[in-house]
Amino acid sequence: MSVKLRQLEAFYAVGQLGSMTLAAKKLNISQPAVSRLLASYSESIEFKLFNRQNGKLVPTQDARFLLREVGRLLDSLEHIDEITHSLTSGNAGHLKIACLPGFSTSHMPRVLSQFLINRPNVTVNLEPDGANRIFEWIISEQYDCGITDVFSDHPAVECKRIPMRTVCIMSEGNTLGKKKFITPEDLVNEPMIHSRRDSAFYRKLEEVFTLHNVKINSWIETRQFNSACMLVAEGRGVSIVSEMDAREYESRGLIIKAFKPVIPHTLMLVRPKHTVLSTIALEFLDFFESSLEPFRLKS
Fold first, then answer.
1. What is the pLDDT of residues 153-203, one digit of tens each?
2. Which of 54, 59, 69, 142 is the most exposed place for a label (fewest CB within 10 A)?
3. Tell me, what DSSP letter sits at residue 148?
């Protein structure tokens, strides 16, 4: 038996309305078309669908039972149509994001909250971890995207590099706060809080200080910029960090000054290269990249 969706729609409309004329208006087709659909459906199932009583089409006992099941089916199809529309328009779906721990407690929650305002049916899995683990997850296609600052070329990973501005931060009362900008020479006697020595950013920092014949006065080594910001806000030394992270802690008393020469901090937006990302994942990547624009280092 081959049952067509249009036959079920005609059967259900007539069963609900008791009239082929009204059913035709609801389905936006002609009354003869409804009649043909009902006749072909009745013939395929081999039992009578309706009796006429007082000018109205009344479902037979078998048809009443069938109507309930057809109603459930049509509701399910309508729901599927709504979900499909939501997925296509980016209003539904599931998003899996991996990011560095610092992002999960600073910039990311605000960006994600803004992104979800008009997307109530989108669910999210946000997983903070180290750069190496993020890289592994993207290679194995476990996550839609990752935000990191470490990347090694890999054929299974697509990477977009975004250079970010950095600044020198100090606590209130530090005499450096009177300067327009800070140079390596200004930091000779300042206890420095800096990123790990094996990080790409520390290597850039060390190179600049060496070119200026200045030795970094290393005091505290930390993996995340936000940790450095909190320590500086507590009056513990100075640091050179991403401006985006510094602005998160500005209200806690940080003094933020430009640092010269410019030392960019490179963020990487990574995604699986051989996976077709969902509409919602692509929209989030664009949205997140746009959120970085105020802190992006212009060429």
1. 899 999 999 999 999 999 998 999 999 999 999 999 999 999 999 999 999
2. 54
3. E
Hey, which bits of 105-186 come out as E strands? Answer: 121-128, 145-148, 157-164, 166-171, 181-182
Distance CA 243, CA 257 (A): 9
How many residues does this entry show for the chain? 299
What pTM value is reported for the model?
A: 0.69
Residue 281, exposed/middle/buried by CB under 10 A (0-12, 13-18, 19+)?
buried
Pairwise CA distance, residues 264 & 292, whole Å: 14
The Cα 257–Cα 232 span in angstroms is: 13
Predicted pLDDT of residue 161 = 95
Rounded Cα distance, 50 and 66, in Å: 12
Are 133 and 271 in a shared domain? yes
Sheet containing 121-128: give its strands across: 121-128, 92-99, 145-148, 265-272, 157-164
Is the distance from CB of 191 to CB of 219 less than 8 angstroms? yes
Distance CA 147, CA 269 (A): 5
Tell me the CA distances in angstroms from 129 to 208, 225, 235, one per residue in order: 29, 15, 28
Say whether both 19 and 51 belong to one domain.
Answer: yes
Residue 85 reports pLDDT greater than 70: no
- Backbone angles phi and psi of 62, in degrees to 5: -65, -40
Residue 295 has which token pair?
Answer: 């802190």
CA distances from 214 to 48, 103, 195, 209, 210 (A): 95, 31, 18, 5, 6
| Domain around 125 | 92-163+266-295
Residues 277 and 250 in one domain: no
Any idea which residue has 């980016």 for tokens?
A: 90
